[in-house]
Design a protein that fits this description.
alpha+beta, Immunoglobulin-like, six-stranded mixed β-sheet, three-stranded antiparallel β-sheet
Amino acid sequence: MKVHRRLVLKGMLALSAIAAWPRLLLAARPDSAFSASDADKAIADLFGQTPLDSEQVKMKIPDIAENGAVVPVTVSTDLENVESISIVVVNNPTPLAAVFLLTPRSIPSVSVRIKMGQTSQVRALVNAGGNLYSTSKDVKVTIGGCGG
């Protein structure tokens, strides 16, 4: 039986992909940060440092959210070496709304719809180059768009 070099290489590549797959699927999830009931504790559990206010972190979110169940948020930055972008809703029962882990080739911009239980400050956090940067905005949540 003749073994072809391409077939062996394809098999080795497939085996290495299968071996790497569980590591990608089982990435560490910051459970304590997602279950924290205090925004500062969630940030401390996630990053272990206090964020610095930065104008380089841009957040687009409405001033008034007519439906707190679907509030659109876009966070972007022109900082280099961005490792993650996170969103915290201070007055939510579990403030950490989202964490996006980025690769070096990623464009540091994310868009998502978050849930807000009530009027609150929303904080966008960018972990870049070993430092933590943030910006925030107060968002009023109305019930059914009635201003209540």
